[in-house]
Amino acid sequence: MTTTHYHFQTASHIVSGAHSLELLGEKLDLLGLSGLTSIFILTQPSIVSLGYADQIKRKLEKKGIASEISTEIKPEPTEENIEEVFQTFLKGEHDAIIGIGGGSVLDAAKILAVLKTNDQPISALIGTNLVRKRGVPTILIPTTSGTGSEVTPNAIVTFPEKELKIGMVSPHLLPDLVILDPALTLNLPKSITAATGMDAFTHALESYISNKANPFSDMFALESMRLISGSIQEAYHHGKNVKAREDMLVGAMYGGMALTSAGTAAVHAMAYPLGGKYKISHGVANSMLLPHVTAFNADHIMDRLENVARVIGIEEAGSKHTLAEHVIHQIEEWTADLHIPQHLKAFGVSKEDVPALAEAASEVKRLMDNNPKQMSVSDIEQVYMKLLDA
Ligand SMILES: NC(=O)c1ccc[n+]([C@@H]2O[C@H](COP(=O)([O-])OP(=O)(O)OC[C@H]3O[C@@H](n4cnc5c(N)ncnc54)[C@H](O)[C@@H]3O)[C@@H](O)[C@H]2O)c1
Ligand SMILES: [Fe+2]
């Protein structure tokens, strides 16, 4: 399962802890960024309503840095949406970018930063290692505990005409500064806490069982699963619990660090067509698929599932098979408790749609190749079918 060569990369500077947003000005000085003239603040309407974007604007004013707030990035943004917002970014002549919000905004901020310096359209940069130059200085502040985008070299773009989501992958997408402030996540709605939290858990589990799993990724993946399994239900039921929110935020970041080194696998490959065509949110698609894909993989990853069982607090002894079943059962229990949909019918998917979905998922080779057990198109179809049975 482990490869001989393994790699790790992450953001240059990370600060964490409740109210760490207060340290923004100090960190700009430290990183030699206080001479900037104007920063584009890319965010989401909910973050503006909560007052966080204005808080940043005022902090920048104190440093003599102008700023413009934009909320034009849509959840799970398309190429067209990002290109449009890029025109606003260019007009403002900003020399840096702050992304504060969920993965959609963080990914878009990373893309805008490199669009500004590379002089090429998104279509030319989509794929692996096609970005040639680093972007303008980028600061990322996650407000969901899910994607880990703040520490990954990936940015995901939705292509509606292809009914697919495709990744831009480059070390140049890694930001200069990350601020992990759990206080910003206390108002995260329950359904988003649930879906994004399960996305983060999926990153950790998939990295841990990936063909590219290695000592670096294992460390982050196991700690990510320990933190998330210990806090996801508390964060969902008692959203104002700062400790649970902090564990979720750090756990999600570790998930991002793990996937950067080991990659995600079949769950993510199969989730992309569900997001691209049926607008099922990324976290919900992953949560639905995770138990079924884990069951498919189980006989190839028994030893690994034993360790997963241990870190997520399953202590019952038994045959290895029983432990694997326990892990799957535990994931199903979480998703039920977190009220995450378990069935594709609710999203207008029918059995006739399955061959096209399976074909599209099998095309996501970058991730399918990481899966510990090879999946044929017919295997993929059978897993989708499980989400339409009953
Ligand atoms: N770059 C990566 O490595 C990576 C990994 C996984 C997923 N992704 C991508 O990230 C995107 C999904 O990101 P996401 O799951 O974080 O969701 P999101 O960014 O789409 O946000 C979901 C919703 O939550 C709201 N929201 C965010 N923070 C909030 C807060 N603190 N309080 C209240 N509301 C808040 C947003 O306004 C939005 O409506 C997808 O496009 C997915 O493909 C990227
Ligand atoms: Fe994900």
Automatic annotation (TrEMBL):
Lineage: Bacteria, Bacillati, Bacillota, Bacilli, Bacillales
Family (UniProt): Belongs to the iron-containing alcohol dehydrogenase family.
Domain Fe-containing alcohol dehydrogenase-like C-terminal: 193-386
Organism: Bacillus pumilus
Keyword set includes NAD: yes
Keywords: Membrane, NAD, Oxidoreductase, Transmembrane, Transmembrane helix
Keyword field contains Transmembrane: yes
Highest taxon of the lineage: Bacteria
Protein name from the UniProt record: Alcohol dehydrogenase
Transmembrane segments: 30-53
Molecular function via GO: alcohol dehydrogenase (NAD+) activity; metal ion binding
Alcohol dehydrogenase iron-type/glycerol dehydrogenase GldA domain span: 12-182
InterPro entries xref list: ADH_Fe/GldA, ADH_Fe_C, ADH_Fe_CS, Alcohol_dehydrogenase_Fe
